[in-house]
Design goal:
With 575 residues, this protein is mainly beta. The chain is built from 6 helices and 50 strands.
Length: 575
């Protein structure tokens, strides 16, 4: 603490009673936050700003900001908050560079990402071009077997921890391979639990079989036998050894693996939320999300993974809605920055980059908060997430209308921000994912080069009145979306959202991957199940390719398509 005290500079004024703390990367950010907390507690300052000098601030556990930290500002100047560990002492071994992976914080580590010289490397897989993925042959639900071509799996018959990434309509599943048995020109692949049970019992989304004309593709990963392309890597967890195949002419100057899932947590309570904290000019980098390596990953939609799911026979009658043929209970991936019970938590000119989970997540009971002039890139899952996607104990098709409205995320704004190369591992994720939210404003963002939908707002698959209302999606520019997955749109909605307005957005330039389950099932604007009381007005699209699927009442569509005023078209996106 003596070192922290030596770098504090006070600026005290009668009007603001403000103080500043300046630190460098060789100082403790946790200690600086505690010092700021004590300054406010002792009446030495009401507002404290921590200035981070240039460099990387390595963490061994998440920064935790609590109600006692309310009123804090953390500013950075080329400052990176990192959950990464540098890998050094590389040696040449044939065509590979090899390094031993040290323990972190007293324990061996595993990870799902590697960044070499600031660029994300590719976890060894069987195809470099996704257009060349193999297709499944038979999907045996009863025996929980996936039949694939023999040629697809010949290389990995002895690989201990190989995984399959299976394309399923609007999602991809990560399945840990348990066994492979060859029969003729085919192979029977079985998977570990819990994902095997989830995969073969859940009805939606499902893989497409050959009789549909578009059998589901898949790729294989996490086997040394697949390490055959420059830029690929493999971690031998048994030997604690990392293998990397350099690109042509490449020297490994810096290699970083993630050792943390979350970098910053805002943790309050309903009665005492964390309030009025701003983070400005900071980069959040180098996280992972390990559940797929430990339990697989079988999502329902937008990366929200199934914890239990199965088909219903007979179907459930739902008043005011069509019958329901499936049940599902969900979990949520970790994010680099997470908030629970907060008010007015703001991010300004921040960068969310090199992340193995999601980027920024207003998880639960968050009120207001602005994300402005931020960049989200190289993110494995969702970029920006807000609101509940059904509480853990609530079957996800049931309407969510909590008795205590403080649970609902309300009043968030994300604006003047750019999203690109997000969803680059979980292809079923989206750039901006908003679930059960109210009074949310998504305005003047630019979204491009994403795997699936650009903006998704709403949840529940029913038209009952819930806690969503008065949301605004305005003047966003979305292009080059659906790089890998269809049944998508530039802007997508679910559920009853009275007062919600989708206006003056521009959606164009959808990608054309050959392996999607239905090459015609893509849209510029898409109001899906239960979407009700939403106004969709003055959105520019190259043609009127829209879908209104199982909608409820009260939707208003006005002047959407190529005829929209050029001024609206020119005004969309980040300025």
């Amino acid at each position: 603490m003596r070192r922290i005290l030596g770098i504090i500079t006070f600026f005290c004024y009668m009007s603001t009673h403000a103080a500043e703390i300046r630190i460098t990367p060789d100082s403790s950010l946790t200690d600086a936050i505690r010092k700021a907390r004590e300054m406010r507690r002792l009446g030495q300052a009401t507002e404290v700003t921590i200035h981070l000098g240039a460099g990387t601030y390595h963490l061994y556990e998440p920064l935790r900001l609590r109600p006692e930290d309310s009123g804090l500002t953390i500013e950075g100047e080329n400052a990176i908050i990192s959950g990464g560990l540098k890998i050094t002492n590389w040696k040449r071994q044939g065509k590979f560079m090899v390094a031993d992976v040290p323990d972190f914080n007293g324990r061996p580590i595993d990870f799902r990402q590697l960044w070499v010289n600031g660029k994300k490397a590719v976890r060894a897989r069987d195809v470099s071009d996704f257009e060349q993925m193999f297709r499944i042959r038979t999907y045996d639900k009863k025996n929980q077997i996936l039949w694939v071509p023999k040629k697809a799996v010949e290389k990995i018959l002895k690989a201990p921890y190989a995984e399959m990434v299976l394309h399923e309509m609007w999602c991809t599943s990560n399945l840990r391979i348990k066994s492979i048995i060859i029969q003729g020109d085919s192979a029977a692949v079985r998977f570990h639990n819990p994902e095997a049970k989830l995969q073969f019992e859940h009805p939606w989304p499902s893989p497409m079989t050959p009789n549909t004309g578009h059998p589901s593709p898949f790729y294989l990963t996490n086997a040394k036998e697949l390490l055959d392309e420059p830029g690929e890597w493999y971690h031998d967890i048994r030997e604690h050894r990392l293998y990397y195949m350099p690109r042509q002419g490449e020297t490994v100057h810096e290699a970083i693996v993630p050792v943390m899932e979350t970098l910053v947590e805002f943790i309050g309570t309903a009665e005492h939320p964390v309030r009025h904290i701003t983070m400005k000019g900071i980069q959040f980098s180098h996280t992972t999300w390990m559940r797929p390596s430990e339990k697989g990953h079988v999502p329902l939609q937008a990366g929200m993974y199934l914890k239990e799911a199965y088909k219903l026979r007979p179907q459930i009658d739902r008043p005011n809605n069509h019958k329901l043929d499936n049940q599902g209970w969900l979990g949520r991936a970790r994010a680099a920055v997470e908030m629970r019970y907060s008010e007015d938590i703001n991010f300004d000119h921040c960068r969310f980059e090199h992340l193995g989970g999601s980027g920024l997540d207003y998880v639960f009971a968050c009120h207001r908060g602005t994300t402005t002039n931020c960049t989200f890139t190289d993110i494995a899952m969702n970029g920006y997430v807000c609101g509940s996607f059904s509480p853990e104990g609530l079957e996800t098709h049931r309407p969510y209308q909590p008795t205590d409205f403080r649970e609902v995320c309300t009043g968030q704004t994300v604006e003047q921000s750019e999203f690109y190369d997000v969803t680059n591992e979980d292809w079923g994720c989206v750039a901006i994912a908003a679930g059960y939210v109210s009074d949310m404003n998504i305005e003047h963002n630019t979204i491009h080069d994403v795997s699936y939908t650009g903006i998704s707002i709403g949840w529940g698959w029913n038209r009952d009145l819930v806690c969503m209302k008065d949301n605004k999606v305005h003047a966003n520019l979305i292009y080059n979306y659906a790089q890998h997955i269809y049944d998508c749109a530039g802007i997508y909605t679910l559920g009853n959202q009275p007062g919600t307005l989708i206006s003056e957005n521009v959606v164009r330039d959808i990608a054309k991957p050959s392996y999607v389950h239905d090459p015609n099932h893509w849209f510029y604007l898409y109001t899906d199940e239960g979407s009700s009381n939403i106004t969709i007005r003055d959105n520019w699209t190259p043609e009127e390719k829209f879908l209104k699927n199982a909608n409820g009442p009260g939707n208003i569509w006005e002047n959407n398509g190529p005829q929209v005023n050029e001024q609206i078209k020119d005004n969309a996106g980040k300025k």
